[in-house]
Every structure is written in C-alpha cells, then in structure tokens.
Amino acid sequence: MAGHEQEKEALPAPPRVTKTSATRQQVLDLIERLGVGTAIPSERQLSADLGVSRLTVRAALGDLAREGYLVRRRGSGTYVQQPKISQELTMTSFSEDMRRRGMVPGSRTLSMATQLAGARLGRFLNVSPGEQIVVVKRLRLADGETMAIETLHIPEALVPGLTPKSLTGSFYELMYETYGITIASGTQSIEPTVTNEEESAALGVPLHSPAFLFERTSRDATGRTVEFVQSIYRGDRYRIVTELGSPPRGRAADA
After folding, report:
1. What is the 8-class DSSP label of residue 252?
2. Which of 21, 28, 121, 151 could be a cystine partner for 117, CB 3.0 to 4.6 Å?
3. Rounded to an integer, what distance in angstroms lies between the CA atom of residue 181 and that of residue 174?
C-alpha cells in the first residue's frame, strides 16, 4: 500500500558546472596538446574561440597559473609551465633526487660564513651556543632552472677546510667522501610559506610567490647531529608526495 511505502532518500544534486570551471577544463585540454614553453592564445582569442567573456577566461587562466600549469611573463604572454616535481619524503639529497628524475642537478653558493651557534641553532645542532658553525646559503638548480634556496648549518669542527668551491654538488656526497660522515637518519618538517624579496630575486619568481619551507635535522649512524637545513622550494615547481600504509586493523571504517 502507498501509505506504507518508504519515501526514497533524495539524492544530492550534482555540482553545478560554472563557466569558469568549464573554461578551465577546456584550457587544460589545450595545454595538453601544446608543448612546455609554448605560448597559449591571448585572452581575446580564447574568449572568441571558447565563446565566453574575457573575464571568464582571465579567471580560468588565473586559477591555472596558481596551480602551476601556466606561467605569466610580463609584456610577453602566458606560457605552458613545466609539470611540478613530486617531492617524496625520503632521506635522499637534492642532487640524488634530481638525477633519479633524469635531470642535471646544480648548485650556486650565494654566501658562506662562520658564526657562533647561539641558543636556537645550538639546540637544533645539539652543540653549545658558543660553538662555531658554518652557514652556507646555496641556490639549487635542475637543468639550469632555479628550484630552491638551501641554507646549511654545520658544526665547523665536522667540516674543516670547507670552501665554497667544494659545494658545487651534493653535500651528502661531500660529507661522505671528504669527511667520512654518512647521513643515517633525520627529522623533517614542511609548511607552506611565501617568498620574501631576497628569495624572490634569487629564485626568479614574483614577490610573495607560494613556496614550501623544509626544515631538516640530520644525524649520522651514531646519532650525532651533523646538520640543520632550511630550504625554500618553489611552490610552482613542487608538490609533496608520500606513501601511505594500511590503516590499523579495525580502523578502516573510521576514515
């Protein structure tokens, strides 16, 4: 009987496809057909080709630029950006990671100085505040393109005779080959940030561009702290990837 029939549960309405999201997808399809570094058509041309307003095209292009698919060059146009590099959370060095991806790693030393550790760095490096440490700031490159700014902090006693000329490649390889130190473990944190004036100039990106701040403390096989590193990675070239294991037994349904 009709009176005893249960009412069917109403299904949620499908999400409404806006003009901007539809235009974004059409431009994404165009990007896939174009090569990296290729200029895309002007806003005026895209507006005519896609049958939408220039404001809609501009909004879609803005979204794709923020997501790293496109790069805007003032006075030149909008170009297809290289795909982001997936950064796995492992203890590999920058140089090793780039070589594994078939890219040529590089490094340019921006500054190198010796200073007292002080309370904060002394705590990170597990040394007294009065101990001398070496602070090295390097620009890290892949296939000649800027990727990150890396600031190394190392107890001076561990790296006697260290010079800027010796820091052209992997610091981990240098530590092993020159000083007999092997990196065995570490602790790393990651948080979103934006570039300041100095970082923007070094990386060749606009002021306040999205970036990732990596902080890593590394230890050798004896548990001795050998370095504290702060790195600013370009947000338009990196994304963070991690391998997930199975949830604890009996907890799968909680997700």
Report:
1. G
2. 121
3. 9
For residue 181, give both structure tokens: 């130190």
pTM given for the model: 0.61
CATH of range 19-80; options 1.20.1250.20, 1.10.357.10, 1.10.3430.10, 1.10.10.10:
1.10.10.10
- pLDDT score recorded for residue 15: 47
Quick one: pLDDT at residue 138?
Answer: 92
Fold of 85-241: Chorismate lyase (3.40.1410)
Q: Return d(Cα 254, Cα 39) in angstroms, integer.
A: 47
147: left (phi over 0), alpha (psi -120 to 50) or beta: alpha
For residues 225 and 126, the answer to whether their CB atoms sit within 8 Å is: yes
Burial grade of 156 (CB within 10 A; 0-12, 13-18, 19 or more): middle
Distance CA 234, CA 253 (A): 37
Is 167 in contact with 107 (CB distance < 8 Å)?
yes
